[in-house]
Amino acid sequence: MLERYKEWVRRHPGIVQNLDWLLLLTVWNPSRTSGGSEATYEAYHAAVGLLSLWHQHIIEEKELPTSRPTPYLLLDALEYVETLIELRGMRLEAAGKMSRYSPLLAVELAKAGLKMAAWSRYSAHMFLRRPSPDDLHQFESEL
């Protein structure tokens, strides 16, 4: 069933991208504006972002000459859930269980590790933004 879904996403990239945009536009949902918790809003935003990232990966895996490196995908995913981790750290700090900075430190260390893993693959290139498919194609041809 998962493979059929992936195939549908590949056959209808325009529809999928429009649905992703529609979901991103609904981030300003009623629970956010009518007193819903910030954690609920951020969880919704993270879920929509992760779904959009997954759809992008499905679409690109057949189009790109080389797949986007896993560290970049993990880095993008981590950036979507980073605020949730920060909110959880604040809640734990309020309960007296730990400092809010411990989870933030773990996130920043994970991000640094992922960036180093990506840089080790493309050692001659420093990315200040996510590499485009054209960038990846050029870098692979230089290896």
List the helices and strands and how they pair.
Blueprint: H1 2-11, H2 13-25, H3 30-33, H4 38-63, H5 70-94, H6 101-121, H7 133-142
What does this structure look like?
This protein has about 140 residues and is mainly alpha-helical. The chain has helices spanning about 1-10, 15-25, 30-35, 40-65, 70-95, 100-120, 135-140. The longest helix has 26 residues, at about 40-65. The protein is flat and about 50 Å long. The model has no long low-confidence stretch (mean pLDDT about 80).
Index terms:
7 helices; 143 residues; mainly alpha
Query: Ends: how far apart?
Result: 37 Å
Order of helices and strands: HHHHHHH
Number of helices: 7
Instruction: Specify Rg, calculated over alpha carbons.
Output: 18 Å
Low-confidence stretches: none
**SS-based structural class?**
mainly alpha
Which bin fits the share of residues in helices? Answer: over 70%
Mean pLDDT value? 80
Largest sheet: none
Approximately how much beta-strand content do the residues carry?
A: under 5%
Task: Give the CA-based shape.
Answer: flat
Number of strands: 0
